[in-house]
Amino acid sequence: MTAVAPGKPRAVPEVGRDTPELRARLQAIWESRRGLLGWLSSVDHKEIGLRYIVTSFVLLVIGGVEALALRLQLAGPDLSLLTPEQYNILFSTHGMTMIFLYASPILSGFSNYLWPLMLGGRDMAFPRLNALSYWIYLAAAVFLYTGFLVGAGPNDGWFNYVPYGELQYNPGLNQDYYALGMVLLGLSTTVGAANFIVTLLRMRAPGMSINNLPILVWGTMTASVANLIVVPAVSLAFFMLWLDRQFGTQFFQPQAGGQPLLWQHLFWMFGHPWVYAIVLPAMGMVSDGLPIFCRRPLVGYTAVALGTVATMLLGFGVWVHHMFATGLPGLSLSFFSAASILIAVPSAIAVFAWIATIWLGRPVVTTAFLFFASMIVLFVIGGVSGVMTGSVPVDWQLTDTYFVVAHLHYVLIGINVFPVVGATYLWFPKMTGRLLDERLGKWSFWTMFLGFNLGFLPMHLVGLWGMPRRVYTYPAELGLGPTNLIISIGSFVFAVGVLLFFVNIVASLRSGARCGDNPWDGPSLEWATSSPPPPYNFAVVPTIVSRHPLWEDRLQERDERSNLGEGMLLDQGKLALATSSLDAEPLRILEMPEDTIIPFLLSVSLLLLFFGLLLKNVPLTLIGGIAGALSLVGWFWPRLGLLEREAAHG
Amino acid sequence: MAELAETRPAALPVGPTGSEGVGRSGMLALIATEGALFGYLLFSYYYNGGSGGPNWVAEARPDLRLALPNTILLLLSSLVIWRAEKATRLGDRRTALLGSGLTLLMGTVFAVVQWFEWKAKSYGIGASSAASLYYVTTGFHMAHVVVGLIVLALLFLWTWLGYFSPVRRIVFTNGALYWHFVDGVWLFVFTTYYLTPYLGFGR
Ligand code: HEM
Ligand SMILES: [Cu+2]
Questions:
Q1: Where is the Cytochrome oxidase subunit I profile domain positioned along the sequence (chain A) (predicted)?
Q2: What is the mean pLDDT of each run of 10 residues along chain A (650 residues)?
Q3: Whose Cα sits closest to atom 19 in ligand 1?
Q4: Residue B161 sits in which domain range?
Q5: Which of A174, A300, A515, B186 has the CB geometry, 3.0–4.6 Å to A353, for a possible disulfide?
């Protein structure tokens, strides 16, 4: 049997058993270097995933503190804790932070960490691109928050309608920070999405066919395809806004043939699919997590997987439901309204599948289970209010009232924050080798759940009573004071629950009970690795025959068993296996890139470039641009080690 | 006793071989997202034009005397880089050098002519919504041409350094693919901004 020898175009990979010597060899090959330089250069998907998770949790806290300030201001009528301008900046920054800097990146973090482990691969398809997407995300967050700190945060809501975003109504750098920051962030999302897509198509263990994928993978994959196609819409819209403001273009200016509504179309062509992109992977967490604690496979796997994809396909066509109140023709409203209500169908499938899984299973009530199960309740509430606003006449009544604030928080907190916290309880042991405390966990759950409902259910009411959203105060005569006080109290209780969750993390990092490889007795491949997993993930390339590789003996679905102990060694270099798209047949041996500082340098260059553009500072723009271009040339220079070229002979 | 599944692969390609490899999927993803970007630009044009009043377009009859030959030149350059790519596949380094060099030249001529085309316009970027869209869309395209020219120059250099062989040439294939994209997307831009006014759009 020939071994893989670098330079030869074909080789038969050596097959062998998982041994300590093999592991030692792989460790030396895959380990990141120590020290600051090593840290900045790491391309390990687990390292990057953790950075994503930590950064987005920090931003969740920041966005949460902003929200609490808002709720303090609204706790009673006619308060003057915040000026109207400050209120504008705070609610816009809160929305921007939560939607763009927390809700999506947190899911990228989990998926980055988990995908290769779940798929039985050694890394993502493009490890350097992976590092780049994290560093640009960080750069965009720094950029946007620099604006906030110098008093130039976004002040026109997260969806930033024109004409208020235009220079004549909105002097100051607020909108320029937001516009350029969003273009920068768009780059991160796009390269990340491309990486997920190619990873799904190529980086699965043999036999990990398309019907064996965990639902989380389906969710992130669907979200990534959507992002690849719709993120350019919002980047373009923001870029055009910046040009309108700084270079006198007329995209959105009606007096010169422009269209303010163009902003709304571009924004919601992106925004609606994006809303799914920040819930579908989280729904996947529930679909994969619940069965572990119900001790049985998910009911209706195929329906749920296809429903995920169907939701997104329908989701491309319904952006206009955010524009029902803009005076579009009636027929088009009816069409978009019908499509929006139709979307409820695939979501309902998922809900029934979860309920059936609990019903037919033997639930073990852990903290993670509580978060996943309660998410179903919140999802139903948020879904019903969503279907209500999907209907045109109701939307005309409710648009821009607090009812919408209630709806969007039920959706976003219910379908993003609750599953994400549940997922942390579920996978923290895998990531750290320690369990989170269950007692504190239950406390944090009940505080979050009760606080959330106390705070956000009454928002529906004040909305129906006519309280508009995005107002910094309300007069006492309206009689909204007492309910608003309850809302604010509930918000603070919820925040305390979130705080308990973070306390649990910090405490358990140091003194949590140690756990083995598979503390919850989970079925999927990540539980076969040690906790935390080694840098190479799997010592030998596993061969998979079912959806539940670790539950096969119990489920007895077929005679054959997945093989985790023997397989391709791929130990002569930083090698990984590429497989075919549908059936995951071995296709190619890949030389994986070594750690490199280039993604970091490229991100720093981009940050300089964007500050240069913002300040219209030519030297800064040139330095950033040229440094970025050089980084790219360095990146793509064909490498012998990656077999991108022949040894030079000229 | 249940049986363990086995994977006993035959010989597998190592690294990118020929035009195959994960890098190619990456390039296709880039093209998909960039294609979408141009789609939104053109959508903006049709949307603003479609909902604008009469005389919305910047010019009722755009001058085609430079733009049409320039378009043909760009499309021909796609053929030339295709030939150069084929030469790389056949291991014919001379033709590959000639081809990528010629494509570089043709692309540069296109960029220069487009520059004069801009200069010759009677309106500036802020004249109207249509004018803004014209300059920004062709400007976006020009940015892609410039990136493409840098890529072509690098391909020329790397071919000259003898980096590519019939087996190891994914970088060349990807660069050529990018250039095809730059050319293909221009057809849509050209049709939209230079031809549809003749069909009456926005007039
Ligand atoms: C402690 C938790 C939270 C509280 C108390 C809270 C409270 C608020 C308040 C008071 C507003 C402004 C309403 C208005 O005046 O119109 C708001 C807006 C918003 N919140 Fe939250 N929120 C919380 C968490 C979240 C989370 C986790 C997300 C997303 C994942 C989120 C997303 C949004 C969005 C998108 C807006 C709309 C901003 C806009 O109008 O442009 N919030 N929230
Ligand atoms: Cu929507």
A1: 33-545
A2: 58 95 97 94 98 98 98 97 96 98 98 98 97 98 98 95 94 97 98 98 96 97 96 98 97 94 95 91 97 97 95 81 75 73 84 97 97 95 79 78 94 96 98 97 98 97 94 94 97 98 97 96 97 97 96 92 95 95 94 97 98 98 98 95 77
A3: A95
A4: 63-198
A5: A300
Which ligand places an atom closest to the C-alpha of A311? 2
Q: For residue A292, with 0-12 CB atoms within 10 Å meaning exposed, 13-18 middle and 19 or more buried, which class applies?
A: buried
pLDDT on residue A1: 35
**Tokens, residue A391:** 């209907």
Q: How far is CA A73 from CA A70, A176, A439, in A?
A: 5, 27, 34
For residues B67-74, give the mean pLDDT. Answer: 98
Structural domain range at position A608? 598-636
- Alpha-carbon distance of A259 to B57, in angstroms, equals 14
- Number of domains chain A is built from: 2
CB A449 within 8 A of CB A414: no
What is the pLDDT, as a whole number, of residue B1? 56
Q: Look at the alpha carbons of A289, A293, A295, A299 in this order and tell me if their dihedral is positive or negative.
A: negative
Dist. CA A91–CA B174, nearest whole Å: 45
For residue A331, count other CB atoms closer than 10 A to its CB: 8
pLDDT of residue A26: 97
Does A151 map to a domain? Answer: yes
Say how far apart CA A75 and CA A592 lie, in whole Å. 55
User: How many domains would you assign to chain B?
Assistant: 1
1-20 of A, contacting B, C-beta below 8 A: 2, 4, 6, 8-13, 15
Whether the bond into A297 is cis, omega within 30 of 0? no
**Residue B184 sits in a domain of what CATH number?**
1.20.120.80
- Tell me if B22 and A202 make a contact (CB, 8 A cut-off): yes
* Gap between the Cα atoms of A618 and A638, Å rounded: 32
How is A535-555 classified by DSSP, letter by letter? TTS-SS--B--SS-GGGHHHH
Sequence-separated (6 or more) residues with CB below 8 Å from residue B26: A125, A126, A129, A194, A198
Domain's final residue, options A511, A539, A562: A511
Give the confidence band of B66 by pLDDT, cuts at 50, 70, 90. very high
- Name which of A628, A544, A545 is nearest A136 in CA terms: A628
Q: What's residue A291's pLDDT? A: 97
In a domain, A65, yes or no: yes
| pLDDT in the model for residue A636 | 95
Structural contact between residues A48 and A196, judged by C-beta atoms closer than 8 angstroms: no
CB contact B91 to A (< 8 Å): no
Task: Give dist(CA A626, CA A605) in Å, integer.
Answer: 8
Partner-chain residue, chosen from A235, A543, A629, that has the shortest CB–CB distance to B6: A543
User: A588 has which bridge partners?
Assistant: A578
In a domain, B52, yes or no: no
**Cβ burial, residue A334 (10 Å; 0-12/13-18/19+):** exposed
Strands A10-11, B12-13: pairing kind? antiparallel
Given A453, A477, A511, the domain boundary residue is: A511
Are B71 and B190 in contact by the 8 Å Cβ rule? The answer is: yes
Burial pattern A248-263, b for ≥16 Cβ within 10 A else e, equals ebbbbbeebbbbbbbb
**CB of A487 shorter than 6 A to ligand 1:** no
Across chain B, mean pLDDT equals: 96
B62, B138 contact by CB (below 8 A): no
A322 CA to centre of ligand 2 in angstroms: 6
Residue B21 lies in a domain: no
- Supply the pLDDT for residue A312: 87
Q: Are A590 and A12 in contact (CB under 8 A)?
A: no
pLDDT on residue A8: 73
Residues A187 and A606 sit within 8 Å (Cβ to Cβ)? yes
